[in-house]
Design goal:
Length: 484
């Protein structure tokens, strides 16, 4: 008997040191029959494995704010596809001043060091709490949390008529900003908004740092990715929090109202594909509903195709756009206009192709005259192809313009109307760039279609003999016989 007791004691010690594993099976053959029960019995460092493909109708709560474990793994067993579907029967936000049913789906509050993997989360509600919110997956005050290979599904896309802001995933700061949050390899669909990054209390000591990577976001009624606040990695002001900022990369956004919206902080958008938006493909706009700090953003190697609004619309901030394509939009490929803040946009090696399909103001790229603060656009090594060219000035009167508002250097503007209106242009061309197979139709678009043909006149016409455009010239194939 003494030997058995010693062995059991050693087993408990090993389990505690390495982290215990709790198995969930709805039929009762696992450790517990529900995910909520598993979250209630684990300790920090433990693992929950859902061992079947059942649908679990329950509201999940985890984290220190609920007096539960804050560091754990929650994942599907290999080969299983479980669904966790919110029933919206809990009141978890009263301490924050929001009484009543919260409608926030699976809530992770104050978690630090969590992996969520291989699970479908659903919330089919079209109701909202007293703050006007609902969500499928809620990450409040979390750090070092990863959501990987999951499906996040709302109640429906366009036309659903949500009464408030229904969010697929919200990573938000209540007392401290979400930091080191990773959302990757996920399918996110049929919500009002896709992933949303927010900092609800502006004077917290940290700023959000959220990475959204390799996700497909589709059929949302509003924006595919919304960033309301971000970090400032190089701030010299000791009162301004520092951080790595937000990274949005390798995502595809399809059939949403808007593609990516930035409303504050430092953000990098890289290698994203935005197709068929019912409004703007990319928008930078800080207003009362978003952040309060200036917007700093880098947009690299991304495409904005077939938007019913603008390909890119920028209202303020310090924005750098490199290697991007805006094509086939009803509005301008790029529209820079005023919300009262000095704004500088630098564009390099981009393509603007046959936009303004139905726009009232037919310019591929347009800079308005700032009403209360100057607007500056500097464009380099870029192609503009379409019916209209580059414009700077008052929206109704081209004689009113900022003389330094729009510079185009080493650009090619191949249009049927006036190529430059109030635009200072140096070393610019007006020739067919000879794209290989360009398309502004999101069903037929390919990036390779915007490569420059062998006989393109602009493949060495850029700065220091570089190419003009986003993709560069087609590479000459090497015949097999020429390889030694």
């Amino acid at each position: 008997m003494r030997t058995v007791v010693v062995v059991l004691a050693m087993a408990v010690i090993v389990s505690t040191a390495m982290g215990a594993t709790v198995t969930v099976k709805k039929d009762g053959t696992g450790t517990v029959p529900s995910v909520a029960m598993a979250l209630g019995v684990i300790s920090n460092g433990d693992t929950i494995i859902i061992g079947d493909s059942a649908t679990y109708d329950e509201d999940l709560t985890a984290g220190v704010a609920a007096g539960l474990a804050a560091s754990f793994t929650l994942r599907a067993a290999d080969g299983q596809t479980p669904v966790i579907r919110a029933v919206n029967g809990m009141e978890r936000l009263e301490a924050l001043g929001f009484p009543g049913t919260d409608y926030m789906g699976a809530v992770f509050f104050g978690c630090q060091g969590v992996l969520i993997e291989g699970i479908t989360f659903e919330n089919h509600t079209t109701s909202a709490n007293v703050a006007g919110l609902s969500s499928v997956l809620t990450l409040f005050d979390c750090s070092s949390i990863t959501v990987r290979n999951c499906t996040i599904r709302g109640a429906g896309g366009a036309g659903t008529g949500y009464p408030g802001d229904n969010l697929s995933i919200i990573a938000a700061g209540i007392q401290t900003a979400p930091t080191d949050v990773l959302i990757e390899d996920c399918l996110i669909e049929l919500a009002n908004y896709g992933p949303t990054v927010a900092k609800l209390v502006q004077d917290t000591p940290t700023d959000p740092s959220v990475t959204i990577r390799n996700c497909t976001i589709q059929n949302c009624e509003e924006t595919g990715i919304e960033v309301d606040a971000g970090a400032y990695p190089e701030s010299a002001d000791p009162l301004v929090a520092k951080g790595v900022g937000n990274l949005i990369e390798n995502n595809t956004i399809m059939n949403c109202e808007g593609g990516i919206q930035l409303g504050g902080g430092y953000n990098v958008v890289r290698n994203c594909t935005i197709l068929g938006c019912r409004d703007d493909g990319f928008n930078v706009d800080m207003d009362g509903d978003r952040g309060t700090r200036p917007i700093i953003a880098t947009v690299e190697n991304s495409v904005f195709i077939g938007s019913e609004g603008q390909g890119m619309e920028i209202e303020e901030g310090q924005i750098t756009i490199t290697g991007c394509i805006a094509a086939g939009s009803n509005g301008e490929g790029l529209w820079l206009h005023d919300t009262g803040q000095e704004t500088t946009v630098n564009v390099n090696h981009c393509d603007f192709y046959r936009n303004v399909l139905t726009g009232d103001l037919p310019y591929e790229v347009r800079v308005d005259l700032g009403a209360s603060a100057p607007l500056y656009l500097n464009m380099y090594n870029s192609n503009v192809v379409g019916d209209s060219g580059l414009y700077s000035g008052n929206v109704n009167d081209p004689t009113q313009f900022e003389p330094q508002g729009f510079y185009a250097h080493f650009c090619n503007v191949f249009v049927t109307s006036e190529p430059f209106t109030n635009v200072t242009n140096l070393y610019c061309w007006e020739v067919d760039p000879k794209f290989v197979n360009p398309s502004g139709d999101f069903e037929t678009f390919t990036r390779d279609g915007f490569k420059l043909a062998e006989d393109s006149p602009v493949k060495t016409a850029g700065t220091d003999g570089s190419f003009i455009g986003s993709q560069g010239p087609v590479q000459t194939p090497i015949d097999e016989w020429s390889i030694y």
